[in-house]
Amino acid sequence: MGDRLRLAVGAMGNASSLLLYAAPILTFSRVIRKRSTEEFSCIPYIVALSNCLLYTWYGLPVVSYRWENFPVVTINVLGIILELSFIFIYLWFAQTRGKIKAGVIAAIVILVFSITAIISAFVFHDHHHRKVFVGTVGLVASVAMYAAPLVVMKQVIMTKSVEFMPFYLSFFSFLASVLWLAYGLLSHDLLLASPNLVGLPLGILQLGLYCKYRKKGIMEAPSKWDLEQNSQEKSKQMQLVTNENINGKS
Predict the structure, then answer these.
(1) Contact 35, 95 (CB under 8 A)
(2) What is the DSSP letter of 163?
(3) Which of helix, strand or coil describes residue 118?
(4) What is the largest CA-CA distance in the chain?
(5) Which of 74, 76, 139, 165 could form a disulfide with 56 if both were Cys (CB 3.0 to 4.6 A apart)?
(6) Exposure of 152 by Cβ count < 10 A (0-12 exposed, 13-18 middle, 19+ buried)?
(7) pTM for the structure as a whole
């Protein structure tokens, strides 16, 4: 019963994480359409890539015992594919300064992962110590992944607009944290559960900010009807001025 419940929660965690990793599709469809990254930051996607790389390695039989963490591997492989796609699109449309910044951070992430994989494979010779080592590095990466949106949250507070903090990204981040926290506790694996102790309150904070500033963003943004009405009023005013000038001349 315990294993079935753990696998069921793992499957739900996979579904929520897939939605979390896929949520930026809407953001990057906008980037492609406008051919500009605007004020979007690439840091959350690079940090998410780091997290996916480390936890894929953590779940493989090299580190874990056989396929005990198979759900962890499946979702993080999909995450790697999606995050690499988003980063490539960002680099394609970003300005030179943004490309350099994103490229440097991505290179550091790949270097850290490579060093972690090499040390865990050749320095440690049993699953327990490999899991502790890779899990500790993964813990840092997970905390960084959940903390990365703090950059965007700061922007939301300063601009009082949620335009560049997509709701679905915040919601699925919260949902994934809840489910993977439960999965880690059911698996008696604190290295899987502990990152979500950070992700859960940060997810709640993001949702709170969205609820607070969403209405303000809508109130401040002029609607199409208002723009058309203002345009009509300006046209009438110009017509009146033109008529007055004609009558004055005659």
Answers:
(1) no
(2) T
(3) helix
(4) 101
(5) 76
(6) buried
(7) 0.72
Residue identified by tokens 């970003």 is 94
Residue 173, Cβ neighbours under 10 Å: how many? Answer: 25
Q: What is the pLDDT of residues 3-55, one digit of tens each?
A: 788 888 888 888 888 888 888 888 888 889 988 888 777 888 888 899 899 99
User: 56: helix, coil or strand?
Assistant: helix
* C-alpha–C-alpha distance, residues 90 and 134, integer Å: 29
Cα separation, 33 vs 167, whole angstroms: 20
Helix, strand or coil, per DSSP, at residue 94: coil
The two three-digit tokens of residue 77, written as one number: 């492989």
Q: What is the pLDDT of residue 239?
A: 56
How far is residue 97 from each of residues 32, 105, 124, 246, measured CA to CA in Å?
A: 19, 13, 40, 55
Give the end-to-end CA distance of the chain in Å, rounded to a whole number: 96
Of the candidates 43, 25, 42, the one whose C-alpha atom is nearest the C-alpha of residue 168 is 25
